[in-house]
Design a protein that fits this description.
By secondary structure, the chain is an alpha/beta fold. Helices cover 39% and strands 21% of the residues. Helix 1 packs across helix 5 and helix 6 packs across helix 8. The chain is globular and about 55 Å long. It starts with a strand and ends in a 6-residue tail after the last strand.
Length: 225
C-alpha cells in the first residue's frame, strides 16, 4: 500500500485530507510540525507528500528544498497545501520543486484525485527516440545523448505530450488539460515555470522545445543538428 505524508499544523485539515485520501486506498502518515516530519523523512518511505508552507519550527519551503536536494527523496511528488495563494507564492513553490499547488479552502476530493495522479503507475510501452533525445515510457526514463535525466512527473507528462505530437503548437490551456486531468488546475503561469525547468533539465535537448509567439509551445527538431 502506498503511503502519503500529510504535513500541516491544522489538525482538522490533516484529518480531513487523510480521510479522503485513505478512501482511495492509500495509507497516510500525519505530521503537525515541520521538524517531526523532517526527522521521519529519511527513515520512512513516502510515495507522495502533502506539505503546508506555514509550519512551526521548520517552514514548508525549507522542507521542500531539502526534499529536492536529497538523493533519497528528490523524486517524491510534493503537493503544496496552503492558505498562501498569491501568484508569487505559487511561483515560489513551483520554482522550488513542488509538483502542484493547492490553496485553502480546498476540495478534499480534488486533493485525493491529485494524489492518485501523481502516484499512479501506468503500463507504458515502447522507447521513443527523437534525435539525441530518448524516452522510455515503460521505465519512466529520459535520456539526452545517452545521459539519464531526472524529471518530475509533471515535467515528464509535458514532455511526452509535446514529443508525441511533434510540431503541433500547444496553448497553455491545452497543456493544462493534458497534464492536470481533473477539474481544478493551476494558472497558465505554472506551465511556463514547468517548461522552463524542463528545458533546463534537458540541457542540449531543451532546444527541441520551442516557444511560439510567446504563449504557446511545441516540440520540433528543426534547426538542430
Amino acid at each position: 500500500m502506498k503511503t502519503v505524508a500529510i504535513v500541516d499544523d491544522e489538525k482538522d485539515i490533516v484529518e480531513l485530507a487523510s480521510f479522503y485520501i485513505e478512501r482511495e486506498g492509500f495509507k497516510t502518515k500525519k505530521f503537525n510540525s515541520g521538524d517531526t516530519f523532517v526527522n521521519s523523512l529519511l527513515r520512512e518511505h513516502f510515495d507522495c507528500i502533502i506539505l503546508d508552507l506555514m509550519l512551526p519550527v521548520v517552514d514548508g519551503i525549507s522542507i521542500l528544498k531539502f526534499i529536492r536536494s536529497n538523493e533519497k527523496t528528490k523524486d517524491i511528488p510534493v503537493i503544496i497545501l496552503t492558505a498562501k495563494g498569491s501568484e508569487g507564492d505559487v511561483v515560489l513553490g513551483l520554482e522550488n520543486g513542488a509538483n502542484d499547488y493547492v490553496v485553502k479552502p480546498f476540495s478534499p476530493r480534488v486533493l485525493a484525485a491529485k494524489v492518485k495522479v501523481f502516484t499512479r503507475e501506468k503500463e507504458e510501452k515502447s522507447l521513443l527516440e527523437k534525435g539525441v533525445l530518448k524516452i522510455d515510457f515503460l521505465k519512466y526514463q529520459v535520456f539526452c545523448k545517452d545521459i539519464k535525466l531526472v524529471l518530475t512527473p509533471i515535467e515528464f507528462k509535458i514532455l511526452r505530450a509535446l514529443v508525441e505530437h511533434e510540431d503541433k503548437v500547444f496553448t497553455r490551456d491545452e497543456i493544462l488539460a493534458i497534464v492536470w486531468d481533473y477539474t481544478a488546475s493551476p494558472s497558465g503561469r505554472a506551465i511556463d515555470v514547468h517548461i522552463r525547468h524542463l528545458r533546463e533539465k534537458l540541457g542540449e535537448c531543451g532546444k527541441y522545445i520551442k516557444t511560439v509567439r510567446g504563449v504557446r509551445y511545441k516540440f520540433s527538431q528543426e534547426e538542430l543538428d
